[in-house]
Design a protein that fits this description.
Shape: globular
Largest sheet: 6 strands, antiparallel
Helix content: 25-40%
Strand content: 5-15%
Structural class: alpha+beta
Order of helices and strands: EEHEEEEHHHHHEEHHHHHHHHHEEHEE
Distance between the termini: 49 Å
Number of strands: 12
């Protein structure tokens, strides 16, 4: 493979925290080795890490033997690495990590209108909504029904390793990109996925792939995107006026997604928010329902259980509170309630000094977690289940909820 030098992009932890953003249930294909995250994206293996003031990224393209990752340099960029694909990688980093919105200002805005957000946010700065490909988001969240983050990640790994193109290796670990809808539409795929442990999701994934192919492949999904958040390389448009239930384009996209197999209101909202750029989408699973009951006075009267009407009411309440990026604010509170982020790290932090291109850099191995997320660095399996599943029967959505869910004590 052809591997670029490490390049630097100024970005504070309060604008994006990788250790939180990449572990909070948005994307399920990133892997962490030491302090570097890597994923196969857009025909390359993208590796990224950060300190308190910068993101460092490196891209590897198929072509020659893969080079082992080395610590990122702090030296300025040279003319030699200004190749078109490297420039394209910088654009990809900006696009995928959605670095346009000023997250610090958004946190301040949400804190000014919501005392609960203001209380939770300081420990969870830098939770940024990714701008994923819509197809990947759709597949990932179909896998999410009645599942947890660890198992969803395992399923996505199996899906890519069996059906996606191999781009290369980091050490002995292979990295495969996402398989296309056409590949998953093969008639043999459903039975193969069942053998791989996908259960009832195998049918949903295969049938949804067939439907997407019938709808002009991935172009149909991209046409559902927020014009203000287009695919990489396309011009930004306008999305219209915000309404209590969201902008017209969001409501239309949500409705179109409900026609796909295995897609109910929650999965449709996850795809709208994290794959189509509709910031007002608020996915409400049983976990978010518990937050709504505990912190926002839902759970009484006509909204005593999570019906379709209550689902819509929770989303409308959060949209009225937080505005057209309500889904971003909701994701901060969702992250704050995940067990994987519930324990603070020990006060002692290991700091290593390494020599990089003539400079001494102090690299704190636990920095992002300790300063922002308040987490341990090892991956801890979370048992949080997104149990609000929508099955399609005779063209109507049926919401399955756990009506006996106990309220968690607020710590």
């Amino acid at each position: 493979m052809q591997t670029s030098p490490w390049r630097k992009l100024p970005m504070s932890l309060t604008e994006v925290c990788l250790d939180t953003t990449l572990r909070c249930g948005q994307s399920f294909r990133w892997r962490k080795l030491d302090d570097t995250w890597s994923c196969a994206l857009h025909g390359r293996i993208l590796s990224i890490r950060q300190d308190t003031t910068n993101l460092y990224y490196q891209a590897s393209f198929p072509g020659s033997p893969f080079e082992r990752l080395t610590p990122p340099p702090s030296a300025p960029r040279s003319r030699a690495d200004s190749l078109p694909e490297m420039v394209d990688t910088e654009a990809l980093v900006h696009h995928y990590f959605n670095l346009g919105p000023n997250l610090t200002e958004l946190y301040e805005q949400w804190s000014s209108v919501d005392a609960n957000f203001k209380k939770k946010a300081p420990r969870f700065a830098g939770v940024r909504i990714l701008k994923q490909d819509a197809w990947e988001a759709l597949v990932g969240f179909i896998c999410s029904s009645n599942n947890n983050i660890i198992r969803i990640s395992q399923m996505m790994d199996k899906l890519c390793s069996h059906y996606g193109p191999l781009l290369g290796y980091i050490g002995a670990t292979p990295y495969h990109d996402m398989p296309s809808p056409m590949v998953l539409a093969d008639p043999k795929v459903e039975s193969q996925l069942r053998q791989l442990g996908f259960g009832y999701r195998a049918k949903y994934l295969h049938q949804t792939a067939v439907q997407i192919c019938q709808k002009d492949n991935e172009k149909w999904l991209d046409n559902l995107r927020n014009p203000e958040s287009p695919v990489l390389g396309q011009q930004v448009g306008t999305a219209g006026e915000m309404q209590p239930g969201g902008r017209a384009g969001y409501r239309a996209a949500h409705g179109e997604l409900l026609a796909l197999q295995g897609v109910g209101p929650k999965v449709a909202d996850c795809v709208c928010l994290m794959g189509l750029g509709w910031g007002e989408a608020v996915p409400v699973d049983t976990h978010v329902w518990q937050i709504a009951q505990r912190d926002y006075k839902f759970g009484k009267g006509k909204h005593s259980s999570l019906t379709k009407a209550t689902y819509d009411a929770v989303g409308d309440r959060f949209r009225s509170l937080w505005g057209k990026e309500a889904g971003w604010a909701h994701s901060v509170l969702f992250t704050a309630d995940l067990r994987v982020f519930s324990e603070r790290p020990s006060a002692k932090m290991e700091v290593k000094t390494v020599k990089v291109e003539g400079e001494d850099l102090a690299i704190d191995a636990n920095l992002a977690s300790a300063l922002v997320a308040g987490t341990k660095t090892e991956v801890v399996e979370t048992k949080v289940k997104r149990e609000l599943e929508a099955d399609r029967q005779d063209g109507s959505a049926i919401l399955k909820t756990n009506t006996r869910a106990k309220r968690r004590k607020h710590l």
